[in-house]
Write a structure and sequence with these properties.
single chain, alpha/beta, Aspartate Aminotransferase, domain 1, Aspartate Aminotransferase, domain 2, 2 domains, 7-stranded mixed β-sheet, 4-stranded antiparallel β-sheet, 15 strands, globular
Length: 387
Amino acid sequence: MQIYLDYSATTPPHPLVLQRVQAVCTEGWGNPSSLHSWGNRAATLLETARCQVASLIGAANPDEIVFTAGGTEADNLAIFGITSQYPEPQHLIISQVEHPAIARAADTLEAQGWQVTRLGVDGQGRIAPTDLEQAIQSNTVLISIIYGQSEIGTIQPIAALGAIAKKHGILFHTDAVQAVGRIPIDLQTLPVDLLSLSGHKIYGLQGAGALYVRDGVELKPQIYGGGQERSLRSGTQNLPGIVALGTAAELAEQTLPEESLRLLMMRNQLLRLGANHGHLQITGDCDQRLPHHVSFALRQDSPLLGLTGKAIVRQLNLAGIAISAGSACHSGKLNPSAILKAIGYGDRQALSGIRLTLGAQTQTEDIEWTTIALQQILERQYTAVLV
């Protein structure tokens, strides 16, 4: 039996996505910037995808969608597209639980003289709006807060945080790569100026994403060339990837209410069964949580503390089950998860985190079998410790 529970890492392309991509590659492969019929067909496909993405997130105008090569580029365009407009370093606010696409960008700015405030979070990974209010300075020009945290699943109070930014006249960006297509987002009511998303998280293809840029927000391009994407992202567009993203967005909008509820029920079952193992504790917020997301770490008092998340991933893989771990390996050294440390975990616990994320092909039987396999792994480890 093969069970894939790593949908936050990437999702399998939907069959309709593959069908439309094949049609693009065989019939609609023209350059969207060309003026002839081949180019016109390609441009129609491009703008259709732009409308589909805009509809999914409630953007008022499809032209507010700028296509990129993925979520990381969208994040970087948002951060550097704003900050590079300032001749002198200013002040940026992010959180301690950002994706590296934001965290490393902030590190780069800090090395250039920018002030960077990294907001702390509580034990569930949530930011207190009052902390954001207190962090704002006279020279704060941008606030970037992740929507749904990929490692622990916690959803931030984006509406409240965005409202604070708006009150102070500060631009607000959110990395919504894990949230788009999984929870309802309506940018006509949500106080967000910039929003990043990625196609391969919603059953599109890897290599295509988008940045929502609210009308009136000025960005400085980070890639120069032929002036595509309103000169904000030059380069001939990845039409197959963009059509895949648009198709995936259309499908997500159609299925979101029903699919979100289905995943939520299985998520809660897995959270409950996993927490009953005795050695594991849930990480992240159990209520304000992505509907497809489950994560655990070893309890502080567990005799298994020292068993790493990477080891659990490898053992489950031997059983045909794919999950992921939060700790990172650099130059052969295993490093504790920065996210788990940010919510108060010590180094040993922060090495033990695992993430199981559900998706379209996940069934209740997969949850039950994974729970059994995980229990067997922990019991074998416990027996080895006793010996």
